Backbone:
């Protein structure tokens, strides 16, 4: 191999003879430290051209277990391929392995994985973010040219920002969810995690499009087969004051964000502060809707077909026992929360109200996006915390404030590496109106051109993994 | 007088080729367990439902036939509960916004028609089936098996208003409903095979207008038991009321073996199903065009057929009703009537001999070998005096079995009516010789003695002599 794949864009990697072994060897060398992968594929005899990729372990691929980071699916062999897996494989994709995640994608740190946390390639003491932390760490350490994650409330974008890579959540309905183990069906969306927005577009051109197995995919064809120009001049960007003045926003992160705004203005973009009042209710709304759907989606893991199947005297205790052993604390917390808010007595007070708030929020966001091209805010209020540093789940919940609105309204949203604070990556988030995905990626390219996190158009990898 | 108030919740399995939300075959009744299943209907992680269009069309057909308003926008919901025959842990149904609402069917009540209102019709999916060892339920069973073939078979649930006034009326309504779904071709209507299932709600209102609590009766699996189970319950509630007791608001199960209802659970123990909109399916939008197209292509409905049979074939209402109750029998009747040009005779034979034999031998009308031409021949044989009505009935089973045509059977068995004057004269002559005093009596004016001689001739010819001819010849010969 004459060229080092770590310095190449995805389109170039795809054109190379065979890079599968190159990445596989890197995984065997570094995964013990990083714990990015839960399963790694065997060496491939297939020397055909193609391109390696990684899947978050809540996406099915025949020949692999799909554990969702949970004891209850520890031994679950994928009986079919997810649509994204099938599409990538048809186009020459070779699966490197399955990456770690918070159990059933519930969490923002990957600490909720039943198989232990993944470590941040920039500082092994720190979390990679989550829930797609394994995918983020794999791409950030150069263990895979790209990975797929799933984003329900920021699970692609937040770990991307904490690991210094690109995380893109497409418009809801552009990528099939068939074969993605459901967390909150109305919010879940698969998205690429890459080292630049052009790569994200290239991945999108392979995985997006209507799928007859997912009734929520749209027929509207969007071509991601584009060469991004990164044109910023004249773009109108809105910075929601509720987000800028959020008390939890770290001062270092804020400073970095403000300096990006200055860079953007210098490049000819208009950046204005605006108000989106309902954003204050984003976290509350999300933590009513997502657990409600999750409580139903996770009902199938009853300990008979899935799970350790601990013997019991009767059906009810069998279910209870297996779910007790099979699910971790955070998953149980959300199932209980969702069961409660959907109960007949509380449905109107919580779930119905959350649906109303959701539509109000979507309305406000869309109105802002009628006036502005994109909404701009930090991807996360803080840099990656240390593993075990945060024990209170609410602190993590509140950190999702920047990413949640895009899921609630089904909008495309991308996190881009935008420099460092205390040696750790910081990300900015750009969110557009529904189906503006391609122009969003184009604007993202513009930000990348300004960002100190890039070298030759690719997000910088920590030196430790590139020696 | 106390008034009985009954409302029904009826589940009808739709006869679509494939299941409601996946492409597995939907006709699973006779299959080996767990042979018509896929990742979707067994609730594998990551699978999603995709609505079968045919299910929507069938539901709209049923809605239109039952005079419902079709909601152009309806929504699927999840009904959440744990049971091993429900692999996703929820059933996809339509709870908040059903596809059809506010309909009615007319029930014939003597000369009167009673309107039975339909509250709603919604689409949902069936659950699997369980087999328990040693008991009827999962509680206390030493082993339970689950067959997921039925998971995802499409159903419509039809909910009536509490407009039925007696167990008998509930049964008649169920039969009308069966006839309707059969005429539409959307459901086989077989209660015995579980293709049509009925849960009944019953309460009794006393003279002062006070209503008892409502009791729900489940597990009714035949038309007969609709009536029986509700009679049992009516009796039980009345007895409780007259002894001053409280009727418990509960769900009871009809026990097929002991012919009684048994308490399953009180309303307090009922599940909270935590209904919420199914996020995996978009809202169901049906166009005016689709509704119009379906309305324009609805087949003839049972009550329409009854009126037409009365009009077109001059049948009594009773005949028209019986013949219309089964689409296959109705069309068979029409073929026979049109071939023989004798609708009333055709109706008599089909309702009488044919249906009796079908019951006896458990044959369906398709399995019966008698074709309309056979009826034509049979009627001609009778009309031409070649066989008597009695002989016709005697040979009918052989025609049904399909071996020969009526003519062949008559010939083969030598059953042809005797029209030959000489044979009749010989027999008569012998009878006259045997009983000369009877001949004298006739000649003395005792006309009644004629019957004796006719009888003697019929006996001698084993019933084959043409009775009209015997009469005529006897009269002539006896006069001397």
Residues:
């Amino acid at each position: 191999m004459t060229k080092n794949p770590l310095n190449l864009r995805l389109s170039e990697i795809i054109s190379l003879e065979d890079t599968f072994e190159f990445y596989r060897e890197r995984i065997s060398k570094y995964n013990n430290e990083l714990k990015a992968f839960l399963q790694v594929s065997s060496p491939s005899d297939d020397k055909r051209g193609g391109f390696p990729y990684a899947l978050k372990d809540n996406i099915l691929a025949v020949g692999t277990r799909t554990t969702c980071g949970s004891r209850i699916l520890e031994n679950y062999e994928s009986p079919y391929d997810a649509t994204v897996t099938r599409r990538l494989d048809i186009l020459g994709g070779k699966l490197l392995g399955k990456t770690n995640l918070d159990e059933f994608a519930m969490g923002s740190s990957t600490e909720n994985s039943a198989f232990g946390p993944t470590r941040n390639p920039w500082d092994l003491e720190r979390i990679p973010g989550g829930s797609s932390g394994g995918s983020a760490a794999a791409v950030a350490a150069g263990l895979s040219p790209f990975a797929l994650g799933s984003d329900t409330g920021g699970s692609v974008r937040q770990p991307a920002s904490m690991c210094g890579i690109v995380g893109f959540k497409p418009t809801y309905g552009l990528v099939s969810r068939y074969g993605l183990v459901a967390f909150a069906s109305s919010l879940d969306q698969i998205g690429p995690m890459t080292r630049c927005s052009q790569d994200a577009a290239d991945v999108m051109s392979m995985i997006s499009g209507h799928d007859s197995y997912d009734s929520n995919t749209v027929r509207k064809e969007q071509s991601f087969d584009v060469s991004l120009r990164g044109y910023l001049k004249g773009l109108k960007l809105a910075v929601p004051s509720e987000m800028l003045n959020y008390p939890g926003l770290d001062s270092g992160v804020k400073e970095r964000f403000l300096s990006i705004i200055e860079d953007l203005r210098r490049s000819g973009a208009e950046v204005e502060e605006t108000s989106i009042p309902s954003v204050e209710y984003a976290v509350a709304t999300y933590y009513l809707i997502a657990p409600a759907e999750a409580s139903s989606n996770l009902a199938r893991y009853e300990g008979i077909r899935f799970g350790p199947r601990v013997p019991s005297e009767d059906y009810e205790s069998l279910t209870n026992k297996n779910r007790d052993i099979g699910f971790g604390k955070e998953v149980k917390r959300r199932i209980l929360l969702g069961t409660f808010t959907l109960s007949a007595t509380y449905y109107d007070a919580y779930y119905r109200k959350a649906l109303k708030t959701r539509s109000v929020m979507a309305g406000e966001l869309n109105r802002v996006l009628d006036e502005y091209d994109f909404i701009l805010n930090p991807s996360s209020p803080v840099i990656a915390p240390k593993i075990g540093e945060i024990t209170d789940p609410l602190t993590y919940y509140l950190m999702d404030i920047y990413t949640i609105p895009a899921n609630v309204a089904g909008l495309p949203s991308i996190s881009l590496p935008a420099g460092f604070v205390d040696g750790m990556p910081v990300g900015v988030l750009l969110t557009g109106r529904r189906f503006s995905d391609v122009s969003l990626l184009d604007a993202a390219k513009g930000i990348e051109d300004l960002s100190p996190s890039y070298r030759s158009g690719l997000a910088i990898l920590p030196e430790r993994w590139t020696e | 007088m106390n008034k009985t108030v009954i409302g029904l919740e009826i589940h009808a399995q739709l006869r679509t080729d494939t299941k409601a939300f996946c492409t597995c075959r939907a006709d699973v009744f006779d299959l080996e367990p767990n042979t018509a299943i896929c990742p979707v209907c067994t609730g594998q992680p990551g699978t999603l439902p995709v609505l079968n269009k045919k299910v929507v069309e069938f539901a709209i057909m049923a809605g239109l036939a039952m005079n419902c308003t079709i909601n152009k926008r309806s929504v699927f919901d999840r009904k959440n509960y744990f049971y091993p025959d429900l692999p996703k842990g929820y059933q996809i149904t339509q709870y908040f916004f059903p596809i059809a609402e506010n309909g009615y069917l007319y029930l014939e009540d003597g000369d009167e028609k009673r309107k039975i209102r339909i509250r709603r019709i919604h689409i949902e999916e069936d659950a699997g089936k369980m087999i328990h060892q040693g008991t009827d339920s999962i509680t206390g069973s030493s082993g339970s098996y689950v067959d997921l073939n039925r998971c995802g078979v499409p159903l419509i649930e039809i909910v009536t208003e509490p407009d039925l006034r007696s167990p008998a009326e509930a049964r008649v309504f169920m039969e009308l409903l069966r006839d309707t779904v059969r005429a539409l071709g959307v459901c086989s209507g077989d209660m015995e095979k579980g293709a049509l299932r009925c849960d009944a709600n019953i309460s009794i209102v006393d003279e002062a207008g006070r209503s008892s609590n409502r009791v729900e009766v489940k597990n009714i699996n035949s038309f007969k038991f609709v009536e029986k189970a509700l009679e049992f319950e009516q009796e039980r509630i009345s007895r409780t009321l007259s002894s001053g007791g409280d009727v418990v608001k509960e769900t009871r199960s009809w026990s097929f073996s002991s012919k009684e209802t048994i308490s399953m659970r009180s309303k307090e123990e009922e599940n909270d199903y935590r209904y919420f909109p199914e996020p995996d399916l978009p809202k169901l939008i049906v166009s005016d065009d689709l509704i119009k197209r379906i309305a324009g292509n609805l087949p003839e409905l049972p009550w329409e057929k009854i009126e037409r049979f009365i009009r077109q074939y001059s049948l009594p209402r009773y005949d028209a009703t019986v013949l219309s109750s089964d689409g296959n029998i109705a069309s068979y009747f029409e073929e026979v009537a049109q071939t023989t040009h004798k609708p009333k005779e055709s109706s008599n034979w089909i309702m009488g001999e044919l249906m009796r034999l079908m019951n006896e031998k458990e044959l369906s009308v398709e399995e019966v070998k008698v074709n309309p031409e056979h009826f034509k021949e049979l009627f001609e044989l009778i009309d031409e005096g070649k066989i008597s009505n009695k002989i016709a009935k005697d040979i009918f089973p052989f025609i049904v079995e399909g071996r020969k045509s009526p003519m062949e059977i008559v010939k083969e068995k030598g059953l042809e009516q005797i029209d030959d004057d000489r044979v009749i004269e010989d027999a008569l002559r012998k009878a006259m010789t045997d009983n000369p005093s009877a001949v004298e009596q006739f000649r003395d004016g005792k006309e009644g003695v004629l019957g004796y001689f006719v009888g003697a001739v019929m006996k001698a010819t084993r019933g084959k002599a043409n009775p009209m001819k015997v009469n005529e010849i006897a009269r002539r010969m006896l006069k001397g």
In short: The first helix of chain A runs from residue 10 to 15. The mean pLDDT of chain A is 96. Residues 88 and 206 of chain A are 6 Å apart (CA to CA). The longest strand of chain A covers residues 413-421.
